[in-house]
Each structure stands twice: as structure tokens, then as C-alpha cells.
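Practice problem: predict the structure.
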Amino acid sequence: QVQLVESGGGLVQPGGSLRLSCAASGSGFSSYAMGWYRQAPGKQRELVATITSGGSTNYADSVKGRFTVSRENAKNTAFLQMNNLKPEDTAVYSCNAYTSRYGFPINYWGRGTQVTVSS
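Answer:
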């Protein structure tokens, strides 16, 4: 069992930066792929960025060049550095831990942290 807790959200002006953290409790963090998702009011949840257990990363086109996902396995923590934030980045950001066992997917989710980009 893995529990995820996000932090680092808040209110920021356009062009500003925030760094989100996702702290995991439980064992096996280094074996999980980690993902950041976001959901804006009235919209579906969308994938923002992922990082595999080996450190390979992937980003949504809308955040490429502005966001950076990383992980620090020794601290059981994943990060999302967000630069040059735009009003359309406003959403609740949640982290996800993914693995599979015996062919079955296993997902854990945090509760999310609010990011608001506004002047």
C-alpha cells in the first residue's frame, strides 16, 4: 500500500513558478512510475507529466519546455517544477504511482493540491 501526499500548490501570477512535491509512504517507491495529472473545473483530468522508475520522462504538449518532472527515490518523493505558468494551468494537480503485478495494474492517487494562476 502506498499513500501519496501532494504539497506546494498555491496562487501565483502569470509567468511565475511553483514546485509541487508528492511524498510517498510505504515501500517500493523506486519501482513505481510516477505521474502528475491535473483537472480544471468542468474539464476532464489530463496527464501532465510522467517519470518511469528508470527516470525516463514524458510531457503533455501544453507543458513541454515549461514543466520538469523529477524524483528522488532516497526521499520517496516526486516533484513537478512549473515555470512560466499561465492562467490555463490553473487546476487541481494530483500525483499517481503506477505499477503492475502479475499483469494487473496498480494505481495509487493523492488528494491533490490546488494551483491557481492569476493576476
